[in-house]
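If your schedule permits, I should be very grateful for your opinion on a structural question. Kindly check, if you would, that the fold set down in the C-alpha cells agrees with what the sequence suggests. Thank you for your consideration; the sequence and its C-alpha cells are set out here:
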Amino acid sequence: MGVAPCGTVPTPPGLSAMNILLIEDDLETASAVIAGFTQQGHRIEHCADGAQAVQRACAASFDVLILDRMLPSMDGLQVVRTLRDRGVVSPVIYLTTLGGIDDRVQGLEAGGDDYLVKPFAFVELLARVRALARRAAGAGEAAVRLRAGDLELDLVRRTATRAGREITLLPQEFRLLEYLVRHAGQVVTRKMLLESVWDIHFDPQTSVVESHVSRLRARLNQGSEADLIETVRGAGYKLLALD
C-alpha cells in the first residue's frame, strides 16, 4: 500500500470541508485514505469499480476525485474520458503505481489534473487535493473575472465566453486558457506552459502542449473568423486581445 501516516493538518484559511470521491479497488489503500481525510474533517465516498464511479460522479457534485488507474470494469483513463464527455468538470488526481513519464502524460491528456505515484505520503495527497479544490473554486484569486478583448473568464464558475458565447472547456483547457489570458499579448513558451499548466518540469517528448493548444484554438474560434491564439515560430504562443 505505502501510505505514510500523518497527524492533524490545519485546514488553510478560506478552504471549507471538501466533498471527495475516492475511486480505488485496493481496500487497504482506500481505508487509509478515507481515514486520513475523515480525520481532517472532509467528507469522502468510496467506489471500487470504474463503472460505478462514473455513475456516482455524474449523480452528485464532488470537489475532487481521487482515482486509481487500474480498476475493475473500466480503467482510470476511460473513467476520466467518460466523465469529461458527460460534462463532469470536477478536478481529478490520479493515485497509482503507474509512474512512468508516458503514464503521467496519458493521464493528463485524458482530462486529469494531477498525478501522484504510489507509495505516497498522505500529507502530500492532502496538499494536492486542497490545491485542486482551491483552484476549482477560484479561491485566493485577486479577481473574479479575467478579460482579454472579447474573451471573458469567470474564475469562480470556471467558465469562458467569447463575445457572449459560452465556450465548453475541460478543466485542463480552462487552466491553459487562464494562463494565456493572464499573459495576454506576451509570448509564452512550451516550457512555461508545461511547468505552469501541467506541473511538468521536464520535456515529456510528446505533443501534449500542441494538441491542447490546437483543441483550445478550435473551441475559441468556433463561429469567429479571428484567431485568438498566435503561434510564434520557434518561441511559443501568444493570446491576442482582439476586440
Residues 122-137 form the longest helix (16 residues). DSSP finds eight helices and 14 strands in the chain. The helical segments are 27-39, 50-59, 76-85, 101-109, 122-137, 171-182, 190-197, 208-221. The first strand starts at residue 3 and ends at 4.
